[in-house]
## 1
Amino acid sequence: MSIPVKSCYLRTLEGIPTNVYLPDNTPIFVGRSPETGITDVKCSRQQVRLCANYTEAIVTVQQIGPHACGFNGFKTQKDVKFVAKHNDRLELLYGKHVFEIEFNPPPSVNNFASRKRLYESETKETEGKTKMLKSDDCSDNHSEESENDREEERSPSNGIYINQKTFSTGSSTSSEQSTESSNTSAKWDSVDNGKLLIYTAPSVQNRPKVAAYDMDGTLIRTKSGLVFPKDCNDWQLLYHDVPGKLNQLHMTGYKIVIFTNQAGLSTGKFKISDFKGKIEKVVQKIGVPIQVFIAVGKSIYRKPTIGMWEFLEKEKNGSITINKAKSFYVGDAAGRPKNWAPGKKKDHSSVDRLMALNVDVKFETPEEHFLKRKAPPYELPKFNPKNLSQIDICKPADAELTLKQQEIILMVGSPGSGKSYFTKNHLKEYGYVNRDTLGSWQKCIAAVQQYLNERKSIVIDNTNPNKASRERYIEVAKKCNVPVRCFVMTTSLEHAKHNNKFRELTDSNHTPINDIIIHSYMKNYEPPTLEEGFKEIVEINFIPNFRNEQDRRLYEMYLLEN
């Protein structure tokens, strides 16, 4: 059962972040205004009329202003209504002022039939006028167009467009509903503001068995001999038998899928248009219907996280459940050490093997899969999030987390170790001092002195890695004759990096912490001692708590690109 929609916003994708709230079943006019930050006089103050329907998770959109809007790359016409869904793009002026529809929480399943009924009822008076115009097709003389040309323009890549003959969306189609049906033409999809690109080759069939592959180093390698391709033409098949092997699997009931990380597409190293051409040529060279998932930049879709696999399961396999016991994944990032075979270098990472472990499918290296070689040795990360057991929150176990008498608790721990989480959940009654909030250690000292004057206990939530950084607070405590206890987070380096990555994936407000900062802390760390002036030193174990089961499942997966 899907979670009910609680809110809807029109969220800007340009300039200063701006959100326009769209209440349930209440028409809202959006255009040139202080709220949107748009001052362009071509944009009317009532440029579009928007009406959100939380039950159906749709927004009815109607251009009111004289100048055309844009909807998922297509031009709109005045007074013509159409239906938008979660993540659809709306340009208040065609090509300008780009916004996105955002439902919270995002709808898990699109209610296709109900959106169709709603749209048909609302467009009854405008049937025959609901044509979306491409940017180079602005003429009013359409009488000479063929019906096929008009039908092509009636199928925007996302959202819903309905007229007397067509009903289409950018997600699943009727051809995806059985193992025997297939897409007859190639298709590109962009998901989540371009964080995930999907190429579906002609005749791809949705099936319960999946043969999944990494691309670089698994199906193809560079012609130049370089580790990374110098351009989008620098590739050749890894083995001559790649097409034969994949064709054999396709003929025996497997759906062939590629999952590839391509961070370079987010940095501009390669043009997306050029890379799309490369993908199409690779698939054509292999000669088998393949669906390709491309993680652009760093997001929940990037391996070893399983965002790409989950999108395949939920949106791109025609509602057919994947049989993981009969599916498998092949990749070269397998965590193999140096000289795993004579003269072979250490694998650059283990993300392919870790993704297979996260998904819970069989894993093979290209050599095992194509050349029938024996399984090579490999190393898994030292930190396994699945092994987190329920342990005492502190050591010694009988240590008091809070005291009735006034005191100072000085936290010690790296970024990502869970200091702030611990203090906010277990030391709520204490005064809180944090350098990230106050800006300097001098201001932290002043805040400590003020709390002491008010006879309040205090927790100092800074990293405090060495004796010098801790000494200044101990001196203030001595002058006021207040005891100081030291709480040391036991979180390991890899565990801290895992925590940081988890927060990055689940909290949009979290500012990612560079691994260099965590490594720097560990390098400069000096274990605290009682000789520094502490009344007691207590070791604190990080024990995570989760908002929901989905977060728990994610946390217990390998998240780091080891």
## 2
Amino acid sequence: MNKLLHFLEQKYNFKTDFTRSVALPSLTIIIAISIFCGFFPTEAEEFFNQVKAVIFKNLGWLYVLIVTVFVLFLIGVAVSKFGKIKLGADDTKPEYSFFSWVAMLFAAGMGIGLMYFGVAETMAHYANPAISNLDESLRAKEAQLYTFFHWGFHAWSIYGVVGLSMAYFAYRHNLPLAIRSGFYPMLKDKIHGRFGNIVDVFALCSTFFGIATTLGFGVLQLSAGLQSLGVIPNTNFKYQVGIVVIVMVIAIISATSGLGKGVKKLSEINIIMATLLMLFVLIAGPTIYILSTLTEGIGHYVSNFMSLTFNTYAFEKDSQEWFSNWTILYWAWWISWAPYVGLFIAKISKGRTIREFILAVLFIPALFNFVWMTIFGSSAIWIDEFVAHGALSEFANNSDTLLFNFFSYFPLTSLLNVLSIAIICVFFITSADSGIFIMNGISSKGAANSPKWQNAFWGGLLTIVSLSLLSSGGLASLQTMTLVTALPFGIIMLLLCVNLWKALMADNEYSTSKYSHGSLNWNDYHWKVRLEKILTYSQKKDIKKFLNETVRVSFEELVKELEKNKIEAGILYNTTPNNSIELVIKHDQLRNFIYGVMAQPQTISETLINEQNTPNIDSDTVFLPISYFGDHRMGYDIQYLSKDEIISDVLREYERFLTLGSDGMHDLLMKPN
């Protein structure tokens, strides 16, 4: 394939921004796995199911721990001093309005899931609860609780970790909008090498398979809805082909028109339609019951948040199968979608502060999900109990048709079905659209203005693979394979958290770093001498000379003056482990006052060593004269201070020492060690 691309480029001036080291391995893996799942669906599903069962059974606790870390990490960053850092330069403005931004969050993240599981999940937990032998009221309450849990802060924290990492490194440090960039603090420029390629290949394949399976399974719900309206006579494969082709053609057109024009407009339209549908169900349904269960449900969720977060059902053996089939499967599914959704969120979040990003990504979608799931789920339970007399519960295992059966108990059923199908279609289009956009970005390292045919290529490949697997029955095995790959990517995401924290610490230190302490006393008389020192990278012998010719002379003058005032003082020298010199003023009731200076090594970064427009650096290690004090505080670099300035600095520290010693509040700290 590499030779084919090269031939087309040379022969027909065929332009491509594909990064071959990412695109070609990804296509090879995608095609190979698709063939395996398509031609051997039974064997593939059996194999991946066995692997999934082993992982879920033995490492379910690890999934719980990983997701818990993500939640705590994002909350910690949001409330920390790092929250005010912008995703971009300090003067960068957001590219999208707040409404457009939030609308696109839903479109890429969980839009289609809300339609598919809005009724289905709550009814599933109600009909088959996690804990058996609950009475009817408790079953409804627990069903709502677990629905909130699976669609709340935990799910969005998974997306938020990837999105925040990518947005920060891309917009704050001008690295490619790719997952590899999140490892820069650990790997530096090696992110552009083999490891970075492997990470991006993993992300690209995960994104492709996630969208392909969602597209395939979503067609089942769409075809069921169209059949209920009488638009199509049945849900045969030929009608499913028509649905997929129509959806993907629109998605490709939208993707080639650009993110701002395509996904933005469709997302805004769809969030309005979804809100209207939700409000209709609220008003036409059991309104008081819905509002009451929403209030109580949020309180129940908050009060049980920590126990839900850490619960692995280690002591409830009968619930462990439910736990694996729901909670762990959800965590694996969200993680498998994290490369796609996280990168999309990053793409639309330039100019936001970190605190704004985290709070919006965690709280706004989660709260909307709570409202949505309550309006649809609680209505379904109420209808099942008081109107349908258990008829809806019978469809709890048939999610494809449950939403449309639910609407049959409302007025304007046909209109509701039409609106729902329209919403599902647009959610499908925006998911496919944004997925195409992200896959093209990963495969070309985020290249701007890449050829439009690349978007069409990914859209066409998605269509072919999803239809082939839908026809052969291989979608289930592909979905299972995607869930299996979630665990290693979860480990990668933990490393993203570590690297992001290191980068944020460096960012904060850089932005709050003050001038060298010695520069506070500078004047314009010795600027040439100061410039010479700045341009000199001292070795140990240079610091030794500075200690002997400048610091020692300063200390000797001070000792003489102190002795005139009958203050006992002395000078100590130490050659191990680093050369140092100390001025010591002895005390009986207070600890001794010590002002010392030592030669401290400092490693120079490769970036500065390789920089052409700086003085030559002979070694990657230089030495600085750093002050230190008797209370074990480390001081500062004094290499730019003259003899008289060092004396002034010692007197400033000595004055501080005497002031603290005169205050009885500090006796414990001022006593001799």
## 3
Amino acid sequence: MSDHRAHPVTSVIVARRTAWLFAFLPLVAALLGLVLLGEGDREQTPLDQLPRDLDSTLATELEQRLPDEGSDTAVVLWTADEGELDQDALGELRATAEELGAVGGGPDGPVSVAEDGTAAIAIVQVASGSATDVADEVEDLRTQLDESAPDGVTAQATGPAAVQADLAAVFDGANFRLLAVTATVVAFLLVITYRSPVLWIIPLLVVGVADRFAAIAATQVMAALDVAWDESTVGILSVLVFGAGTNYALLLISRYRDELRHVEDRYAAMTTALARTAEAVLASATTVVLGLLTLLLSVIPTTRGLGLACAVGVVVAAFFALVVLPALLVLFGRWVFWPKVPRTGQAALVDMDSFWHRVGDRVARRPAVFATATVAVIAALSIGLLGVSTGLDQDEQFLDEPEAISASNRLAESFPAGLTDPTRVVTTADPREVGKALEGVEGVSQVQPGPEGDGVAQLNVVLAGDPGSDEAEDTIAAMRAAVEDLDETHVGGTEATAIDAREGAARDRLLILPLILALVLGALLLLLRSVVAPLVLVATVLGTYAASMGAAWWLFTGPLGFSALDESVPLLAFLFLVALGVDYNIFLVTRAREEAAAHGSRQGMLRALAATGGVITSAGVLLAAVFAVLGVLPLVVLAQVGTVICIGVLLDTLLVRTVLVPAAALLLGDRFWWPRKVRA
């Protein structure tokens, strides 16, 4: 029989007289916030995505004092459709370059012609600002180039400004597309899960409003605290809110449906269901929030913003799932479950001869065999983790190759490496002394004077090595060693920034990964008041992470053809898999503890598996599908993060939580709960 005693707060939320207040007031407040406030805004800076205090970041900070710090560089590339560029075409190109205000160049003016005669380039300064501002400037530049290009000549824009513009274009309307696809996937899976033409609408409505409110709350908080975020932050936040919010909703509705089989009064049924569900959801949400807040320790500003935004999102998702959803559901009758309306006196999930009941029985017969086989599968998949390497080249950042990348690849065929995107050395020392120190470095092709002002000088250094090569990396290290004794001299630019990004990501992993584990373990210790069970659960989520990374690595380097993972993938995948993966174990184990109090450890775990198997599997499949939706954005890092999490959640849901955790609990018996005793 159900225990109808509940915390006074949960009782008030779903009481006959007050349920409508908790159902509609938050929804109205969220909608008013959307209309009156809107999402927060903050001016982006060149430092937002650079690792704090590293050399390339210090170079960028020093560059802000230069007289032309308000501009970015675009490289205009003209190529002959056939043969070489003739003199008439070159004359038109020089005139166009002068109209565009091209800088630098050779003795023949601002246009430099390749030795093979098939291509020419010019350097154009583009006013910097937000990503949107730069994108608009580059779009105008490309329009002018298309209109002015001579017959038989193709004009393209590349360089740092064009790459930034094409990156911004990835997110042009992306949040709407991501939201639409996510909502569609969630709606489809909810219909399949509930097999009702009505019920799915309620949780989807609640989670959808929660998502929009979370976007407002998170961006307003970040704007108030001056925390950096980028275009991808709101997209990832939306995916997380939909995933976590729907998971919480599935758990609540499943328990509510179960209680309706015991009690005629739906208000009493929801009171019990909410009281039983709240502990697991609050424990889960707290664990995820603490894990996300560890990103505030990152050396990269936008990573800190992502952690704060997602933490706010999970709090909002949990609130709407535990306050708005139960109050709204209870206002409707049992008919919302039509055609499978739960009736009083029907068998409860734990008593039914369900698929998950049969799975539990099979595991119970040979728990050691199932545990060994599952560990073997996880170990086999984890082998791929040994080969994982990180660090994508610039031309690998996009799933669909944009103009800036295709033009850069074409440019490299006719011009020396490093010519159009030189390494920038910024100094307060004598630039002539710095130049002499750099000219003696192996791998430096040429040193060119750059802008000066306010006691700061910039030198543009062309490297002999190809971008992203070991030779280029060695040259950057040698350059830094050569100028380390000079006053405030820093090496920046694309190549140096990529090297520092790897170092910053390594620092983050070394600090944040152990902290996430410690927080998750601590949360489980407090929740279960046990030592053995938390250690087992943490070990299983670690195994899931290793297996999903290994499997994803084989997928990325095999069929998908990537050479590496993005630097941020291991950290973000670890965070979401460990924090979210432990959710399902919390849902299972808290139910097992509840059942064990009356039926003992062995039967408690089997009854919990039978009761939660369907809902947790549905939640896991839904969460995996939602994260896979990140692949609709043509940015490799998001596709990789989404793929790893999708694989990991499916492994955790279908294998680890279904087989390994029950098998381990059955093998350990009462020791699984040590030192706590689950039966009086």
